[in-house]
Amino acid sequence: MTAFPRLRRPEVLAYAAGSFGTGVFSTVPTVLLLYFCTEVLRIAPGWAAALVFLPKVWAIVWDPFVGAWSDRTAGPLGRRRPFLIAGAVGVAVAFVAVFTPPSIGAVGLLAWTAASYFALATLYSLFAVPYVAIPAEIGQDAAERSRLVSWRMAVAMIGVMAGAGVAPLVVEAAGGGRAGYAVMSLTIAAVCALAMTGPVLMLRHRDIALPRPTGPQPSLWSQLGRAFRHQRFRRLALAYVIQLCAVGAVSAAIPYLVIKAFGRSEGDIGLAMLAMLGATTLAVPVWSWIGRRIGETRALGMAVVAFALSAGGLGWAAHTHLAWAAALPLFAFAGLPFAGMQVLPYTLVADLIHAEAHDSGDEGVFTGVWTATEKLGLALGPALVGLALNLVHGRIDGLAKLAAVAPGVLALASLPFLFAAARGAAPLQPKAAA
């Protein structure tokens, strides 16, 4: 692999800027799409849950393919920038399409929204997979990779905060309903597309395609198999899926809890998410420091336990219809461990990928599998909320009871896989040439 010079602060910030877009584009559908489908478009909850979930299942296949495709790309723009450019433009267009459906019948609305969201998920991968691979590729040591990941996650939290907190406020300010969601989508798409040009510019002198090998090349399936056979990587990915399923369930339940349990407006969804994600943004560097002090695995275990407790507190507050002023601090408390569940897994996996795939140039394959697990986890959460709404026949008390228990149990269920991954710390050695 090419040895790059040390990263300067402007380069780190330019790289991190792209995560504002990924944070927004991944969060708004997680928080608002299920609610938009069921309450604004009047799509049945079961169909809406399928609409949210199925495109993420597609990512299980698509993301690793994008990673391998990017690894093998050779051209004047390098092997990452063509994907970053196509993804940044395409995802902005698809995002607007999701929230601006035409006035057609119920079946047409379902088809339009499903197709648009499928396109959004597909195009998002073109940007996100090579983008996430960059620290493992150009970071010279663990400290530099941690620096890139920490800055990326800090800016991503600002994007998540904008997507989850500011987006509902824009919807309300624009009058709510279809018109409000249309204004929100246009505003957010323009800002995010601009932010996502940062890593493209940063890579001008660092995005170098690897020389094409002269001998036989491994097939895509053998590259993917290498990632899936890596026991530590597999266990870490499984733990991450379960954790994000819990996070996605809490995020998707918040609009229903805020409006129907606490009796607030759509704008207060934004206040709740701002309280949660503001705390998350502030806590990212703290969790990075804790990870360096006691080890990322132990720190992540602490974050998971704290998240389980805070999710239970939110569900209890909704079930007892706690006063809004008393409930808001509980949202902020939930944001503190969420920061650890964001930055620490990415630090762990960046070091693992660098050790396993740096010499072979397969960072994109491993990253593609990882981002596929991320999307799957975030999709499972809202899908579970949609199924829960069917199970309790839309009754908010029933949803609040489930919210008090299910996310915490899910989060804790990830711990055996997380600690098992820590025990298998030695990377898989490449096979000797025949």
UniProtKB/TrEMBL annotation:
Highest taxon, organism lineage: Bacteria
Recorded GO CC terms: plasma membrane
Transmembrane segments: 12-36, 42-62, 83-104, 110-133, 154-175, 181-203, 236-257, 269-287, 299-318, 376-396, 402-422
Keyword Ubl conjugation part of the UniProt annotation: no
Lipid bilayer topology: Multi-pass membrane protein
Keyword terms: Cell membrane, Membrane, Transmembrane, Transmembrane helix, Transport
SUPFAM superfamilies: MFS general substrate transporter
GO molecular function: symporter activity
Biological process, per Gene Ontology: carbohydrate transport; sodium ion transport
Family matches, as PROSITE patterns: NA_GALACTOSIDE_SYMP
Subcellular localization: Cell membrane
Coarse class of the protein's main subcellular location: membrane
Pfam families named in the record: MFS_2
Keyword Transmembrane helix: yes
PANTHER family associated with the record: MAJOR FACILITATOR SUPERFAMILY (MFS) PROFILE DOMAIN-CONTAINING PROTEIN, MAJOR FACILITATOR SUPERFAMILY DOMAIN-CONTAINING PROTEIN
The family this protein is said to belong to: Belongs to the sodium:galactoside symporter (TC 2.A.2) family.
Protein's recorded name: MFS transporter
Organism: Caulobacter mirabilis
